[in-house]
Amino acid sequence: MPIVLEQLSHHYRSCPRVSVALEDISLTIHDGELLALIGHTGSGKSTLAQHLNGLLEPTSGRVLVDGEDINQKGARRRALRFRVGLVFQYPEHQLFEETVFKDIAFGPKNMGLTGQQVDQRVREAMARVGLDFEEMKDRSPFELSGGQMRRVALAGVLAMQPRVLVLDEPTAGLDPRARDFLLGDIKRLNQEGTTVVMISHAMDDVARLATRVAVLEKGRLVMQGSTLEVFSQQERLAAMGLDIPDGFKLARRLRQAGLNMADHVHPEEIADALAAAIRGGGGDAA
Amino acid sequence: MLRDITLGQYYPVDSPVHRLDPRTKVILTFLYIIAVFLVGNLWLYLPVAAYLAFATWMARLPAGMMLRSLRPMRVLLVITFVLNLFFFSGAQELVRIGSIVIWREGLLNALIFTFRLIFLVTGSSILTLTTAPVTLTDGLERLASPLRIIRFPAHEMAMMMTIALRFIPTLIEEADKIMKAQTARGADFETGNLMARARAMIPLLVPLFISAFRRAGDLAMAMEARCYRGGEGRTRLHQLKYGRRDALALLSMLALYLMILLPGWLA
Ligand SMILES: Nc1ncnc2c1ncn2[C@@H]1O[C@H](COP(=O)(O)OP(=O)(O)O)[C@@H](O)[C@H]1O
Ligand SMILES: [Mg+2]
User: Fold this and answer.
1) CB atoms < 10 A from the CB of A144, how many?
2) Confidence of residue B49 (pLDDT cuts 50, 70, 90)
3) What is the mean pLDDT of residues A161-167?
4) Cα separation of A136 and A138, whole Å?
5) Which of A56, A206, B47, B165 falls between 20 and 30 A from A242, CA-CA?
6) Nearest CA to ligand 1 atom 2
7) Res. A14 pLDDT band, cuts 50 70 90
8) The pTM is what?
9) For A116-134, how does the pLDDT look when each residue is reduced to its tens digit (9 = 90+)?
10) pLDDT tens column, A203-250
11) Protein residue with its CA nearest to atom 4 in ligand 1
């Protein structure tokens, strides 16, 4: 179920002035990939995310899901939202039910599933995000810790079993442990076949998970490519005020120190190359 | 969707009216409203209209904007006119359509009442168009402060209004976000009967209230951290001062009163 954006533009019109949030974006999200969307605050990332499941309508351009224009007349946008799950920033602020079970069941219920199916979906979704069903199902979502609330909110979207999952800054405001948990969940989901679009400011997280990276600046898509291709262009990213992952910084420092070290996405690879160099073996370092 | 609502219709330009003391503007508006109610003869709306035009011109407000303030009132205006036209009997018959009679007095009354509404709404909108909400509450607080003798909490009321005004846009934004998030989970806010729609609001209202309480708690904490202890002995950043401009504005109002009242006295 690929999602294709064709020359997508979005202008917010808040009375007197019009702000251009997206301009002429053409981007394809392939099946099974984990695309990271990065960019400075206000570059239009969240706006783009809301176009992927038809929450916003383009000012111009088209969004094709499975080859079908989701904004044409008669498009079944509600059904689309069950296939493209969107987890907003700070999703725990949208919890509202008395119990964890009921909150996670909200999506599946809206899909019109039977009680038994809903129950099944909730169990699966909770297992996916590492919440114990029996222990948690009857607790109030408001008495949980921040990390747990976020996982309940994520489970609420996963329970609809979307084929594409869009996450807007999923780890913002979490402590390192909760963050690691969540990133692990996301990685596992992707490995099991869910396409993931992840917006993030944490470049290390991006390097750890992403298969491809797209960069937005002032509403324009300025770079896209493999993680290695994008982060190798440190000067361009720095000009946009964007950081690079620690691994890339390390490789750069090693090069400045006179080593012949190539860029690597994962710090482990650099460690290996470095170790090999120290032992006097092959590797890129010499 | 929700963002389209504009609240506090302040029109930010620099004009002598904008620079008037907010207290003067509140008093002027109050006097203006009384003046409009004193008009009992269609001709006497002429000075009122002239005054309104003068004030609009002085305030550098586009005339179209003044007329737009009438738009939400259009149904009420039509009802006022029609009711007065048909349900007021008098002595002089004007038109007769079957059993329905329109009397001359009915027509005059309909016109007077409709114009009264028009002038009230457009006139008082000058106050909100030329005064920033926070300045306005500041002025109201100062005007109401003599009432402190009878234990009227003027400062507290004004602070509440200021905070409420400050947070309206924030809450609208928040509601928009929550609504989208629930829509992404298949919530449907737009179809169904009244009951279904009311129930559909729960996923929006609960998080909205929780967030409002959270913000209120944070704000209270922040105010306390800066030693806020109510209005007692509190000095102000912006001192209000009456100037010559305010005196002139009040004189212009006196002129309006003379024009409205003199014909009656002379007759
Ligand atoms: N609801 C809205 N109304 C008006 N302008 C908006 C709205 N949401 C975002 N914007 C503007 O659109 C631009 C892009 O915002 P956003 O998509 O939230 O960026 P990001 O998620 O990358 O920080 C910003 O300039 C922002 O001010
Ligand atoms: Mg954002």
Assistant:
1) 18
2) very high
3) 96
4) 6
5) A56
6) A12
7) low
8) 0.79
9) 999 999 999 999 999 999 9
10) 999 999 999 999 999 999 999 999 999 999 999 999 999 999 999 998
11) A12
Domain A3-227 adopts which CATH fold? Answer: Rossmann fold (3.40.50)
A106 contact residues in B (CB cutoff 8 A):
182, 185-187, 203
User: From the CA of A51, which ligand is nearest?
Assistant: 1
User: What's the average model confidence in pLDDT over B93-107?
Assistant: 83
**CA angle, B125 then B129 then B135, to 5°:** 115
DSSP output for chain B: -GGG---S-------HHHHS-HHHHHHHHHHHHHHHHH--SGGGHHHHHHHHHHHHHHTT--HHHHHHTTGGGHHHHHHHHHHHHHS---SSEEEEETTEEEEHHHHHHHHHHHHHHHHHHHHHHHHHHHS-HHHHHHHHHHHHGGGGGGT--HHHHHHHHHHHHHHHHHHHHHHHHHHHHHHHTT--SSSS-HHHHHHHTHHHHHHHHHHHHHHHHHHHHHHHHTT---STT---SS-----HHHHHHHHHHHHHHHHHHHHHHH-
A-chain residues near B206 (CB < 8 A): 96
Average pLDDT over residues A198-203: 94
Dist. CA A29–CA A2, nearest whole Å: 6
Domain boundaries, given as residue ranges, for chain A: 3-227, 245-286
The interface predicted TM-score (ipTM) is 0.89
Q: Give the B window 193-252 contacts with A, CB below 8 Å.
A: 202-203, 206-207, 210-211
Residue nearest to atom 12 of ligand 1 (CA): A21
Indicate if ligand 1 lies below 6 Å from the C-beta of A50. no
Distance CA A187, CA A267 (A): 17
What are the Cα distances from residue A212, in Å, to A43, A204, B231? 18, 14, 58
**The pLDDT value given to residue A56:** 94
For the CA of A38, the nearest ligand:
1
What would the mean pLDDT of B156-171 be, rounded to a whole number?
Answer: 86
User: Do residue A55 and residue B183 have CB atoms under 8 angstroms apart?
Assistant: yes
Domains of chain B: which residue ranges?
A: 2-131+239-266
Q: Which residue has the higher pLDDT, B189 or A115?
A: A115
A33, A195 contact by CB (below 8 A): yes
Q: Which residues of A touch B207 (CB under 8 A)?
A: 93-96
